[in-house]
Amino acid sequence: SYQRFANCYRDFYRLQPELTRSIYDQFVSQLQASIKEEIQEVKEEGNLEALFNSLDKIVEEAKEQEEPAWRPSGIPEEDVRSAMVPYLLKHRAYLRKVLKEKEEENRKLAEAVLAGRDRIAELQRLIQDRKQAWQ
């Protein structure tokens, strides 16, 4: 404030109060300009304007949401569990589906192997029968 500034320079203020006020005003305006310049540099360096715009968009989208946003419980195991359980359930369903497909494929292959064995046994009997017929 101006009073604090004047108290710091008491002797100068007593001699020339108008000049003290003028110096204070210049000091404040230069400080404000410097701060604005620094803020602008930070905004440009960090691309903050785009980030703030995206943040505003997220806030606007969140206003339409009826249920509260997720917040961590403070217990990491529970927080991870709440995020991982849906993924793991989905993965388990996928693995069960693949397992059923493989079991079906194995069943068909086993039937083909058994049919092949039966055919081989039939051919061996035919060979045996023809061999005995020749003898």
From TrEMBL:
InterPro entries: PMF1/Nnf1
Record has Iron as a keyword: no
Sorted UniProt keywords: Cell cycle, Cell division, Centromere, Chromosome, Kinetochore, Mitosis, Nucleus
Major localization class: nucleus
Compartments (UniProt record): Chromosome, Centromere, Kinetochore; Nucleus
GO cellular component terms listed in the entry, alphabetical order: MIS12/MIND type complex; nucleus
GO biological process: cell division; chromosome segregation
Protein name: PMF1 factor
Species this chain originates from: Casuarius casuarius (Southern cassowary)
Annotated gene: Pmf1
